[in-house]
Amino acid sequence: MLGRTASNLFWMSRYIERAENIARLTEVGYRISMTPDTGSGHREDWKSTLIAAGCLEAFLKRHQTITAEKVQHFLLFDPEHPSSVRCCLETARNNGRAVRTGLTREMWEALNSTWIEFAAIKPGTLDSGKLPDFLDWIRQRSNMFRGALLGTLLRDEGYFFAQLGAFVERADNTARILDVKYYVLLPSHEMIGGGLDGDFNAPGFKLDGELFVVLATAYLLTSTERIEMAHALATEATHV
Question: CA-CA distance, 39 to 14, in Å (whole number)?
Fold first, then answer.
């Protein structure tokens, strides 16, 4: 397989995975911002969303204030932001078109129709009441592409490069989410940046079994042997 073909397949799947991840993070930010504020002080729900998406620095270069409308447009529709859903879907389609003969009809139709329908949406018509349904649509289209890939593509080099792109993006997204909230695993917030921060072998640092399974399986391929390994490690962690 040519390196160019492998690269196109890799980035095609990776950008589709990224579009879904951005949609999920946007929904989290939206739902958290809609919950009543029972505490005091300044809430930074959308700032946390930008950090988890790895887009805070790029956002602040173009916007001085963080508002729901600006963040939603930046993450979903901004044509100059390479990780926006719009750019992800367009780039995935372009990569797929470059290797059209390496895709099945179902895969190409999922890519092409998703981009055509997305491009026809006018951001100004998408108010906050319609946002959850729109984000659901993005996830459904991502799942349709994934189903077409898993159900119709031969298990050859092209399949494995496509899967590699999706899993690398998933691991990267999971790591960024953990980085935003890792401190909740520390015995106290005062230890952030201290000796215990980052030392998983330190006394008193224990992972709950269920949480450990989530963390482990997020980075492991879903083969039977590796799933069993994750459960074994989780069981050991709970008995420390």
Answer: 39
pLDDT, the chain, mean: 81
CA dihedral sign, ordered 220, 84, 72, 128: negative
- pLDDT, residue 21, reads 94
CA 163 to chain centre: 15
Residue-wise burial string across 186-205, b where 16 or more C-beta atoms lie within 10 A, e elsewhere:
beeeebeeeebeeeeeeeee
Does 116 fall in a domain? yes
Distance CA 46, CA 56 (A): 10
In degrees, rounded to 5, the angle at the alpha carbon of residue 76 between the alpha carbons of residues 75 and 77 is 115
Q: How large is the average pLDDT for residues 66-85?
A: 94
225 against 45, higher pLDDT: 45
Two tokens at 147? 């189903």
Q: Which residue has the tokens 């072998």?
A: 201
Please state the three-class secondary structure of 24-41 as a single string: HHHHHHHHHHHCCCCCCC
Domain annotation covers residue 55: yes
74 in Cβ contact with 59 (< 8 Å): yes
pLDDT, residue 178, reads 79
Domain count, the chain: 1
The answer to whether position 176 is within a domain reads no
Classify residue 205: in a domain, yes or no.
no
Q: Which residue range(s) make up the domain with 98? A: 3-166
Tokens representing 48 are 């946390």
Q: DSSP for 79-130, please give it.
A: TT-TTSHHHHHHHHHHHHHHTGGGS-HHHHHHHHHHHHHHHT--GGG--TTT
